[in-house]
Amino acid sequence: MKLLSWNVRVLGNPQTVRRLRHSLKQHHPQVVFLMETKLNKNGMEKVRRSCGFQFGIDVDSIGSKGGLSQSWLGKVNITLRSFSNRHIDVFVEEGEVGKIWRLTGFYGSPYSQDRNAAWNLLRQLRNQGDYPWLVCGDFNEILYGFEKKGGLPREERRMEAFRQVLDDCNLVDLGYSGWWFTWERGNFLEINVQERLDRGLATEQWSALFPNNLIRHLPHSFSDQCPILLDTAYKNGEAVKRKFKFEAWWVLEETFFSETKRIWENSTGDLVNKLEILKKKLEKWGARIQSKNENRGFDFKTARIT
């Protein structure tokens, strides 16, 4: 299944709708989550039907702000659980998978005074069943400082609050392919700001259900924000790139910290590039250590840090 999530920044004119239709025809998503439509339910229903989506849940904008829509094709069975001006939460049932999972389209507050309320909403949604859970959308926040380029540095307490809510909800970032940022403002270098505000998050249960999932950051045209396209079963004639996984037992190894320091000090490029090098080399180091210890009879499956 393909899911497209996009902060479209207004769907109020025919040219914008035509560009949206073009994007949908190009990527063929079965489910679409749109934010900042700035339309009422009747207006949004007309737009999504013109895009070929007969089924949908539309949330009114509040004046000239907000507006959400989640639409799907008939091949996917979707049941509404709850909605607000910040989220649409549904059950998804695919015949091919044969299992039910949760999908929450989420729009984080762009205003600092409302951000805690948005995070608490996510916590409330977490406590509503133990189904495999996927959350995607525009969170209007970054997890780490390197997810922003240009402008004023993000306050650490804001990023920590975002990291904490993900920890509380047992959600893990699914990563991405393509441009590293999803939002951009300013055409000139001295005023240009780029941030990764849109992402997909999932529980371990969901990732186990769809181990070959892939998120791509797509080019944007009429919005200052990139659409993100999630494919639950990505295939491209080649092996799917395995996601980096930090193993807890690594920190038990005497050489872990010295090896990490050595890799970092010998890496070149910007912060993002150095982190990519660190991930790859730590995986190779971990594989060597694991192979050596397994030959001694050490069982990593039962290893625990206490």
> How many beta-strand elements?
16
Helix content: 25-40%
Please tell me what the overall shape is: globular
Structural class: alpha+beta
SSE sequence, one letter per element: EHEHEEEEEHEEHEEEEEHEEHH
Q: Overall pLDDT, averaged?
A: 87
Estimate nothing, just give the exact number of structural domains: 2
Main sheet: strand order: 3-4-2-1-16-15-11
Major sheet characteristics: 7 strands, mixed
**Beta content:** 15-25%
Q: Give the uncertain stretches in residue-range form.
A: 237-241, 300-306
Organism: Gossypium hirsutum (Upland cotton)
InterPro entries: Endo/exonu/phosph_ase_sf, Endo/exonuclease/phosphatase
Protein name: Endonuclease/exonuclease/phosphatase domain-containing protein
Pfam families: Exo_endo_phos
Topology:
Elements: E1 2-7, H1 14-27, E2 31-35, H2 41-50, E3 55-59, E4 68-72, E5 77-83, E6 87-93, E7 100-107, H3 115-126, E8 133-138, E9 148-149, H4 156-168, E10 172-173, E11 177-178, E12 183-185, E13 193-195, E14 198-202, H5 204-209, E15 214-217, E16 228-231, H6 256-265, H7 271-294
Parallel strand pairs: 1-2, 7-8, 11-15
Antiparallel strand pairs: 1-16, 2-4, 3-4, 5-6, 6-7, 8-14, 9-13, 10-14, 12-13, 15-16
Helix pairs in contact: 3-4, 6-7
